[in-house]
Design goal:
179 residues, mainly alpha, single chain
Length: 179
Amino acid sequence: MVESLYRKYYGKLYQYGCLVHNDSVKVEDTVQNFFVWTLEHSEKLKDIKNFEAFACKAIRKNLIHRIIKDNRSKKSKDNYLVTLVNEKSITSVEKEIMQAEESSCLKMNLKNAIEKLPDKQKEIIFLKYYANFSYKEIEDIMNVSNQVARNYVSRALKKLKDSIFSEKIRAFIVSAFLA
């Protein structure tokens, strides 16, 4: 049972841990130690309704404890997975190339915009849109109220929207001068 949980969640927990702590070796140790704990306490797992939320909360708690212990400030790692924009089936090769370039620029702009977010907003965007946690689960993982979780998401999305929009305006102005 623990082996299947390890295979299913290790990558996601490691990636989440990298948002909480910037030392990938310590994140890897923490995630592995968590799975050692689950192996040693497998009888307690049957009482857990949502293993993924439980695991994220445990990883977060242990990493924050490690940060405090090491007297380091919290930083986020710069690796993020960005969701692809809806792709449409286009028959023209030229249109496909243009779409790929536009999508690549949009992903790059989105990644840059995410990197500029405060750490808490990066973390909550990851939990909400990559890990697909509900606000209730985020509330539990981050130890914040439901409204605070919603506010973080709202502010983060507004910053992302504003940042991407300003990048599009800049690109439009540059292309107007080059034309």
